[in-house]
Amino acid sequence: MYAVYRQAHPPTGIEFSIYCNFFSSEERNLVVAGTSQLYVYRLLRNVESSAKGEKASDAKGYKDKLELLASFSLFGNIMSMANVQLAGAKRDALLLSFQDAKLSVVEYDPGTNDLKTISLHYFEEPELRDGFVQNVHIPEVRVDPDGRCAVMLIYGTRLVVLPFRRDTLTEEHEGVVGEGQKSSFLPSYIIDIRELDEKLLNIIDMQFLHGYYEPTLLMLYEPNQTWTGRVAVRQDTCSIVAISLNIMQRVHPVIWSLSNLPFDCTQALAVPKPIGGVVIFAVNSLVYLNQSVPPYGVSLNSMTNGTTSFPLRVQEGVKFTLDCAQAAVISYDKMVISLKGGEIYVLTLVTDGMRSVRAFHFDKAAASVLTTCMTIMDPGYLFLGSRLGNSLLLKYTEKLQEAPMNVSRDHEKQEEPPNKKKRVEASLNWGGGNAALPDEVDEIEVYGSEAQSGTQLATYSFEVCDSILNIGPCVSTSMGEPAFLSEEFQNSLEPDLEIVVCSGYGKNGALSVLQRSIRPQVVTTFELPGCYDMWTVISSEKKIEEDSVEGDTGDKEQNKSDQEEDGKRHGFLILSREDTTMILQTGQEIMELDTSGFATQGPTVFAGNIGDNKYIVQVSPLAIRLLEGVNQVHFIPVDMGSPIIHCSMADPYVVVMSAEGQVTMFVLKSDSYGGKANRLTLQKPQIHMLSKVITLCAFRDVSGMFSTDSKNSMSKNDLSSRSMEADGSIQDLSTTVDDEEEMLYGDNSSLFTPNKEQGSANHSMTGLTVADRQSPHYGVEPTHWCMLVRENGVMEIYQLPDWHLVFLNKNFPMGQRVLVDSSFGQQTTQEGGKKEEVTRQGEMPLVKEVLLVGLGHRRSRPYLLVHVDQELLIYEAFSYDSQSGWSNLQVRFKKVAHNINFKEKKVKQSKKKSDTALGEESGSTRARVARFRYFEDISGYSGVFICGPCPHWLLITSRGALRLHPMTIDGPIESFAPFHNVNCPKGFLYFNRQGELRISVLPAYLSYDAPWPVRKIPLRCTVHYVSYHVESKVYAITTSVNDICTKIPRMTGEEKEFETIERDERYIHPVQEKFSIQLISPVSWEIIPNTRIDLEDWEHVTCMKTVSLKSQETVSGLKGYVAAGTCILHGEEVTCRGRILIMDIIEVVPEPGQPLTKNKFKVLYEKEQKGPVTALCHCNGYLVSAIGQKIFLWSLKDNDLTGMAFIDTQLYIHQMISIKNFILAADVMKSISLLRYQEDSKTLSLVSRDAKPLEVYSVEFMVDNSQLGFLVSDRDKNLIVYMYLPEAKESFGGMRLLRREDFNVGAHVNALWRTPCRGALDGPTKKSIAWENKHITWFASLDGGMGLLLPMQEKTYRRLLMLQNALNTMISHHAGLNPKAFRMLHADRRTLQNAVRNILDGELLNRYLYLSTMERSELAKKIGTTPDMILDDLLEIDRVTAHF
């Protein structure tokens, strides 16, 4: 049995975050990492928040947002992350550590807009492991605050020191001659920390300290371990030690140590200068330590009484614990702490004159998400990354309090600081006293901080600016039918389902409803056969009064926006047919216009708005018309020797192309200022016609990215002084070294001083810094460009209106990964290259269409879409300073990976081949139908709709991530247009293959700015199980909330009674979960009132499923019930029992005004069992339950369970599933067992089991025709497939299950489910037979990702396996990771068995789609096949798994 793994939804949980200069020294970025993903965000200040699918209610003013600039996927899980600026570098490098002991240093590469690996460090030699097979230690990376070295703790016993070169200028001058670029790293070395002190074991945390001459590392460790139950005899076991690292001599003396710290210390946080030292977090206390001052510690609750003899003061007014807390330093004396319940506190260190801390002050500021990592961004911004909820960007503001000391101190102490503070203020501004203006408060803080001894206290307020969606941890999933599906789509063969996922934990608990494809809400459908293209244009009827409004935007703002909405309504719909054009006026109703200024006698090539939506341009094959409303303003007959077949517009330019490749441009000019007499004037471009132009696109750039001025000479003028000191050698792709480059970047293997003229020229240019670009009212002058593609495969970009060539790229249709400009001096040499171009023309595929369009936040992200032959290429433009001295475009294009299938079915081609001569001719003069349709506002989203056999929405919001959502529900889509109308606000129109015009809107309840369209329903409690009940179309969910527990059960003889525990008020009571089962309706995703079943205190739900049991009520003899198993835990002394609950969901008369209350639970059975009920499933209409160490089979009769059969099993069965009469049971430690129920003899017997131990997380079946596999996910993040093969010798006659496939997913999988392959119902074609009776097994992981396993035929598997092995070595992987090693079975225990693999890594195979045509054919040749075969295989995987 063979299979392929695919990641269907990327992981969304975030575990690490840092704020650093990722792209350049000019701007700082937020870099976040979760599992195997790395994302880079930019903080956008003051974005209008009304945009992008948010409710109008939050659209008050401006908000700060995060914009995603780059994302990278790695073949390995990031274990730790840090950043450092290396000597001479213009940006920060990231240090990423991976299991078991790998360290990669990566940096952004401006030439390819990608990550490049600078250095790799690998420490997995057996001698470093000390003979241990198992490794539980995470490789932690820490960087010295002054950037002199980094350390990584590996295997808990060794410290790897990685020193960085910090060059002085003198060394640089000596090294100029003959040496290449020096490495930024000195050789690393390893310290065995047990040699420092044999007790130095069990390191809890380590941090570099501030303010030391040498890099000084503080380690918090626990030499003799203890635990809560042993504190009475062994306590205060933690210690710290600080070692000073002398990197040159490689010596590391211990300079400070302290022992007998509380036993529950969890982490250390270094305090910056001028205070210095370290704050040690313990669960119940907080301690400040510094080398020369006495320690200061406080107790945070009364648990410290009797558990520690460390001197602690009682911190008044607070009562909490610091386990799972995250902290970050805001300023030298303040830190933000996020507790495990999400509460945010600001801790102020109150210092005295000697800079020793003598008080802590806690200020509870907010309650927020349960935090996994925390980063201070620009002053005033805090990022909270979370695995358990949405990650948040918070803005904090500080309000200073009058009295700078806490009121709870003694009186004379409190009197002291204000006087000192006044003295400081008086010396600073002569007003004296507290007469400082509000603006100057900051300055006083800054200047006074050194001299000021009393610490200024402040209260903080936090507000949420932005959030990053997270659907993890996915604990349980269920498939269900969507409540709203337009009736046009309801009778399709393949059911359209959605997935409901239990996400989050505690107050972040939620249900996430996911669909992969977009399902439009159809308003109405028209049958209009014969229309092959359409456009909607805005009618300018209402424009006249609007001009006056736009004149003064003061108090008429509201009025203006309404007017603007009206002005954006589409007035006309233009439909083009073979020989006529139909004009529809779209007002309250849609009606055909008989007489108008539009041309209706022939087809239309293009229609659109020009002149700021005031005019309409209609392009026919032989003429161009300019209209205002229905009235024709200007008519131009165009004769270019052949009819116009293509037109592209960038206001005010219209560029048209004839069938023979002639290009002409028209410009909208107004004759008299403000007059009505506007006309189009012809401007014939001066471009060479050596090779025919086959497609073009005009582009209006409002981002300022497209420019021909070298950016270094512009926006870096304020930095030129700085960058001359940091003289890094530049690694540039252009080999020509330019004077300007030398001046800006310092030495490039030769030394000279920049001449005066250059310097002055530099500073005369005005540049835009990042800050300018982000201010809300900043506007770039729009620029206009035109891209042409020629038959010989050359792509050119010209600057309009003077058609000056600024970018040229050869072999454009080959899909290179980065499009680089090679237009240096091309104009002159054009004639020479004529002959060779003609010969090469044959093999070059033709480009059918290009679209260059600005998307995203203020349209600042230009994307290029290309339709080549049978493929779609998507490129993202990025700024690149070529410094060539030519005035060429300072932009490059980076290919974006996607898997949109543009291949048409083969049938059509054979038909064409018979009459090629005729078909080609007639086809070429007909106007082209554009596949790429830009839309500006459909339900608040802007993007491009991609028509064709596999229609997709390409969306980019101000969040900046590229989202590709398929819309496969209506088959291939011929043409598309946005449509904003009174009856269809912000909707769209499209034609499907059947010639039906559908007027539709996007369903508004989904958020489309996510990897899959999603709706997240917050429930504010932990959701454990969700299950869809098919008959009543509702979901049952199990939730729990945390209650404080003050009782303990005690056994007195036979009876148990509860003893209430009395404790003091600073005691923190334990919490326990209180469970309940509820119904939720997919109509409004609200909990149905009065359906809640509350379980007893101390009772936990261990499983809940929909089971189909035998029943006389239905025709099939089976009926769906909701069954739940519980277990009642009263501690160690009371025997554990459980209950089985069986509920029917019945229909009742709904309560008035509450339509959802038509469904209700009816509890049929709830009885206590002899042991804990740990798993349930159904088999042949019977209920199967695991109770204690037995598995029972029950039949439900007259609302009672009667036992039918039982069998003894392993330790603890926690998952059971069944197929036919087979039951697969998963044990928590002892792997899986396969049982069979025999109806005639009513026996339950063991068929086979896996004899080796395995910690199972979840199980599901793999179905491949007649073969059945048992898929297991385990604790080591593997997926393993077992099979029952009694013929095989090693299975001992079928007693043992054999392992047939294994694979490391890199994430814990708790939820698995199955669907049949898609397209198996289309009827027996050659393709679909291969996928018949194969099931896809889907899974959702604890870090918010989803994936699938698809069984494969051996032939395809072998072919793709060769490709995978080739790709493994052929392409360079991010951070130098090895996909093969990552996907190997990961086992902590050594077993006497090798990995069997047999599962392909679809993520690696998908990289093949990203390669250029040349690289593809080279790889295919290597493995003896053709690129078409491989592409077919890969796209076929996509086709059959296109569910949801």
* Mean pLDDT across all amino acids: 84
Q: What summary fits the major beta sheet?
A: 5 strands, mixed
* Quantity of strands, as a count: 90
Give the DSSP E fraction (strand runs of 2 or more residues). 35-45%
Key structural traits:
90 strands; globular; single chain; 5-stranded mixed beta sheet; 1444 residues; 42% strand; 19 helices; mainly beta
Polypeptide structure, described:
The chain has about 1450 residues and is mainly beta. Helices cover about 10% and strands about 40% of the residues. It is built from 19 helices and 90 strands. Strands 87-88-89-1-90 form a 5-stranded mixed β-sheet. Helix 2 (about 410-430) crosses helix 3. Residues about 50-60, about 170-180, about 405-455, about 540-560, about 715-775, about 830-840 and about 905-925 have low confidence and may be disordered.
Write the layout of secondary structure elements.
Elements: E1 2-9, E2 16-20, E3 29-34, E4 37-48, E5 62-73, E6 78-84, E7 93-98, E8 102-109, E9 114-122, E10 140-143, E11 149-154, E12 158-163, H1 169-174, E13 189-192, E14 203-208, E15 216-221, E16 238-244, E17 254-261, E18 265-270, E19 278-282, E20 285-289, E21 296-299, E22 313-314, E23 326-331, E24 334-338, E25 343-351, E26 357-367, E27 373-376, E28 381-385, E29 391-400, H2 411-428, H3 441-451, E30 458-468, E31 477-480, E32 498-503, E33 510-514, E34 521-527, E35 533-538, H4 543-551, H5 557-567, E36 570-576, E37 581-586, E38 590-592, E39 606-610, E40 615-620, E41 623-628, E42 631-637, E43 644-650, E44 653-658, E45 663-670, E46 678-683, E47 693-701, H6 711-714, H7 720-725, H8 739-745, H9 756-764, H10 770-774, E48 783-790, E49 795-799, E50 804-809, E51 818-819, H11 834-840, E52 847-855, E53 861-868, E54 871-879, E55 891-895, H12 907-914, H13 916-925, E56 932-938, E57 941-946, E58 952-955, E59 963-966, E60 973-979, E61 987-992, E62 996-1001, E63 1014-1018, E64 1022-1029, E65 1034-1044, E66 1047-1052, E67 1055-1060, ...
Parallel strand pairs: 1-90, 21-22
Antiparallel strand pairs: 1-89, 2-3, 3-4, 4-5, 6-7, 7-8, 8-9, 10-11, 11-12, 12-13, 14-15, 15-16, 16-17, 18-19, 19-20, 20-21, 23-24, 24-25, 25-26, 27-28, 28-29, 29-30, 31-32, 32-33, 33-63, 34-62, 35-36, 36-37, 37-38, 39-40, 40-41, 41-42, 43-44, 44-45, 45-46, 47-48, 48-49, 49-50, 51-55, 52-53, ...
Helix pairs in contact: 2-3, 4-5, 15-17
